[in-house]
Specification:
mainly alpha; 0% strand; transferase activity
Length: 59
């Protein structure tokens, strides 16, 4: 019974590896590489690390 379970786990790991490779190749085809030069203006998304902080308000 343990051998059957180990075999199924091995098959599942192989299928996951195949799916990951397929997803990576698809993502790499649609990836747009961005390059910036010194002095370029860019917009940055600034968000708090641990949610919104409300100073002076407890609870």
């Amino acid at each position: 019974m343990i051998e059957v379970t180990n075999a199924k786990v091995a098959v599942a790991k192989e299928k996951i590896k195949e799916a990951r490779t397929r997803q990576k190749s698809y993502a790499d085809k649609h990836h747009i590489s961005l390059e910036f030069q010194p002095g370029d203006h860019v917009f940055l998304k600034v968000s708090p690390v641990r949610g919104v902080r409300r100073f002076g308000i407890k609870g």
